[in-house]
What does this fold into?
Amino acid sequence: MSFPLFRSRPVPEKAPNPALAVDPKPEKRRSAYLTPDCKLRGKLCFFRDARVDGQVEGDVESAKSLTIGVHGEVNGDIESDSVVIAGRVEGNVVAKRQIRLAGTAYIVGDLETSGIVIEEGAQVEGKIVIRPKATEGSERPRRLLAQSMAPEAAAHAAC
It folds into this structure.
C-alpha cells in the first residue's frame, strides 16, 4: 500500500482580466482612455488616439484622433486631427480633418473643420465653419502631429 505524500489538486483557472489582455492589433490601441469614473482638471495633451468617457475641465489637444464617449464631458476647447463626439462639450472644437457628431452629442461652442458628419439627434449651440484645408488658426494639431513623430522631442515640449 502506498500513500502519496503530495496530492495533486486541480488548480482552478482564473478568468482572464480584460484590462491586462494583449491587444492583437497594437497599432489600433489608444494611447489613453479616461474612464467614466474619472474627473480631471487642467490641460490634456495626447500624441496618439485617445478616448474620454469621464469628465475633463480644461482644454484637450490630440495629434491624432480624439473620441468623447457617450458619458464623456469636456468643459474646454478641443483641438485635434479628427474628433468624434458622442457626449457633451462646452467649448470650441477645431479639427484638421473631420468632426463626427453622434446622435447623442451636445455641443455648446463653435466647430471648425474641413469635414463634418452630423447624425440625427446631435445638438449644436454655436456656429459651424467648414474650411477646405487647415487654417493658420489651427496650427496646434499639426505641431502636435510633428511632435508625435519624434517622441523624444514630444517628451520635452509643452502642449
Remarks:
- The first strand starts at residue 32 and ends at 34.
